[in-house]
């Protein structure tokens, strides 16, 4: 009986870990995503699932972000870009 871990299995573990790590980042990494999309991807999934663009109105986002200034350190420009990026057009998601 050998206690040595098989190199084949160790390699597989690394691949699985890499896939799992990237599963969360793949969908938003399209080449024409705005720069704020990367901030959204990295900062907004730490406490809850990052809200998808178009699922909140501008007013809902501004209301939520007024409680987020101490949670996430973004500049005023980044908060504004975040609202632009996530807000649904013409309040379509107002009745959730
Ligand atoms: C430090 C933890 C934390 C981080 C990081 C965080 N949030 Fe939140 N978020 C919360 C908590 C807690 C709530 C629920 C309470 C509330 O609404 O304030 C929440 C609620 C929300 C809501 C309201 C949800 C709803 O359906 O009404 C939105 C929108 C939101 N977050 C967006 C974001 C975005 C965008 C980011 C990245 C800029 C972000 N959050 C990062 C903790 C966090």
Précis, in short:
The chain is mostly helical. It has helices at 7-23, 35-43, 58-66, 76-86.
How does this structure look, described?
With 96 residues, the chain is mainly alpha-helical. The protein has four helices and no strands. The radius of gyration is 19 Å and the shape is elongated. Helix 3 (58-66) runs antiparallel to helix 4 (76-86). The longest helix is centred in the first third of the chain and has 17 residues, at 7-23. 48% of the residues lie in helices and 0% in strands. Residues 22-26 have low confidence and may be disordered. The site of heme C has 15 residues, from helix 3.
Instruction: Give the beta-strand count.
Output: 0
- Give the radius of gyration: 19 Å
Strand content: under 5%
Sheet/helix structural class:
mainly alpha
What average pLDDT do the residues reach? 80
Name the features.
binds heme C; single chain
List the helices and strands and how they pair.
Elements: H1 7-23, H2 35-43, H3 58-66, H4 76-86
Helix pairs in contact: 3-4
Heme C binds next to helix 3.
């Amino acid at each position: 009986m050998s206690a040595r871990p098989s190199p084949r299995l160790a390699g597989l573990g690394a691949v699985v870990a890499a896939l799992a790590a990237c599963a969360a980042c793949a969908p938003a990494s399209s080449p024409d995503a705005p720069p704020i999309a990367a901030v959204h991807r990295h900062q907004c999934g730490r406490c809850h699932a990052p809200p998808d663009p178009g699922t909140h109105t501008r007013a809902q986002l501004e209301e939520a972000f007024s409680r987020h200034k101490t949670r996430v350190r973004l500049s005023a420009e980044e908060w504004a870009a975040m609202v632009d990026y996530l807000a649904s057009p013409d309040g379509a998601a107002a009745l959730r």
